[in-house]
Amino acid sequence: MATIYKIATTEQWRAAEAAGRFDGAPVDLADGYIHFSDAASVRETAARHFAGQAGLVLVAVEADRLGPALRWEVSRGGALFPHLYAPLPLTAVTSVAPLPLGPDGRHVFPEAP
Question: How would you class 79 by CB atoms within 10 Å of its CB: exposed for 0-12, middle for 13-18, buried for 19 or more?
Answer without folding.
Answer: middle
